[in-house]
Amino acid sequence: MLNRKKWFLVIFSVFVLVGCSSEETHINPSEAVEKEGLTIITSFSILGDIAGEIIGNRGTVEYLVPIGEEPHEYEPVPSDFQKVSDSDVFYVNGLNLEEWLEKLVANVGEIPVVAVSDGITPIMLEGNNEEDPHAWLAIENVKTYVNNILNDLIERDPSGESEYRSNAEQYLKELDGLEAWINEMIESVPNENRFIVVTENAFKYFGASYGFQTEGVWDINSQEEGTPGQVGRVIDLVNDQQIPSLFVETTVDKRYMQTISLDTGVNIAGEVYTDAVGPEGSGAETYILMMKHNVETFVSGLK
Ligand SMILES: [Zn+2]
């Protein structure tokens, strides 16, 4: 028979054990989350949306560069390092986009980094040997992104293969629909008006796919921006080519294009999305919605 003192010890030990185990589950919530599926981090919001379409309910996707900021010259904040090191894989665009990536990856250890643009034929920047990163602005390239993400997810989580394949198939169908819609929409733009003038010349892949010439005050945000020579060159071009409308971007300083508009008398027809999806309530919260918004804005300005 246990005496009163020994009973007390048994009960006390049970309390200690229960206390320890519940404390452990509180200390490591990330372990519990990990068991529910893959945790994907992407460099910017557009990739986050596309990856989210493929992973569906089998995992979580986050992105680093906040909506409204541009991903070329982003400065990672301390919480970004934590987000990346807590993830199973880091999806980046590649093609010269994430110039801040090296510093980030060097500080987060062994996280696999996958460039989802792999296999795309790059368009080069003007006057040098670097690739233009904005491949996602042509739908056919995003289909390559989807297939690269699909293959990577299957490799990391083979038991989810059929779900990932069905999500990707559904999304590829939506992209086909978007492409058909774009081709139909742009029919109302006369050939001589097919000229997209924006601040950062990000629509080269879009232009190559859908038959538009493109021009920017500068070629890419990470280069020198907005010199009087760059602004003057676009003013001359707008006058010489009789450009019907100008456009500004949600993630680029609008003052340069405003100067060009004042000088030439040509209107800014609207704001387009290049390097980020739109915020909640914008109607451009996903890649597909932002592309629709862009095409509607181009067509209304140029037709
Ligand atoms: Zn850009």
UniProtKB/TrEMBL annotation:
Q: Name one GO molecular function term.
A: metal ion binding
Q: Does the keyword Signal apply?
A: yes
**Record InterPro entries:** AdhesinB (IPR006129), Bact_metal-bind_prot9 (IPR050492), Lipoprotein_PsaA-like (IPR006128), ZnuA-like (IPR006127)
Principal subcellular localisation of the protein: other
Superkingdom assignment: Bacteria
Q: Which Pfam families does this chain map to? A: ZnuA (PF01297)
User: Could you say which protein family the record assigns here?
Assistant: Belongs to the bacterial solute-binding protein 9 family.
Q: What is this protein called?
A: Manganese ABC transporter
Q: In which organism is this protein found?
A: Halalkalibacter akibai (strain ATCC 43226 / DSM 21942 / CIP 109018 / JCM 9157 / 1139)
Q: What is the lineage of its organism?
A: Bacteria, Bacillati, Bacillota, Bacilli, Bacillales
